[in-house]
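[09:14] KT: can someone run the structure on this one? pasting the chain below
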Amino acid sequence: MAAMFGSGLSNQTGAAVGALAFPVLGPLGVVAVRQYVAALVLLAVGRPRLRAFTWRQWWPVLLLAAVFGTMNLTLYTAIDRVGLGLAVTLEFLGPLTVALAASRRRLDAGCAALAAAGVVVLMRPQPSTDYAGMALGLVAAVCWASYILLNRVVGRRIPGAQGPAAAASVSALTFLPIGIVVALRHPPTAGALLCAVTAGVLSSAVPYLADLLTLRRVPPQTFGLFMSVNPVLAALVGWVVLGQGLGVPAWVGIGAVVAANAVSLAPR
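[09:31] RB: done, structure tokens below
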């Protein structure tokens, strides 16, 4: 329980710390640094034998790399536009959709309706509503769902953590020229660079290692159920670290999405 809670708190704190570097590096620069850190960590853990990969193994790895980079970029851009709590809640619809799609229970149909109602509350029309930011959060959700499905394919075809490590490396190489351009146009300060690196460690290295340890001790269903706390943690961390307070309707929408996930994954 401590490892799962620590993983979620670390992930959301890392995103909040990364947001502190947005004024200097922008979401694109922060994501580039995060990709580099993730690649270094996963390469050290997975140690992929890239030369031994066949095309049947490479194509899902390349797709996973594209999804990984797009997911982080759309999420961080959404955080910049609509705040950490709302962005993470919208992204969380990805794994929730994957979980509900595999079920035929009437209860899960009700959970899907509850989650949809929560999204409607979150995206209710207002003069200040940032629809582009909301849309980016939903794109991140699609990417997260794709990330889950592709990881299953990669896991069946490539042993250990070699597949995710290879995908992270390809993604980091893709972001390398982007990072260089961002650094030339907006020279990073020491503080901004430290925030971006910290975001990479807290949102990539710590959660990955904590989840690896946790999944050896708890069933996947229990792990998925505990993931429901992430939108709440994101909202709280966004409030404490970034001063992004949420109104009652937003909390109601977040609660609906969290409840839908919790009920759908609760032991039958």
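[09:33] KT: thanks! The chain has a mean pLDDT of 85.
[09:34] RB: yep, looked fine to me
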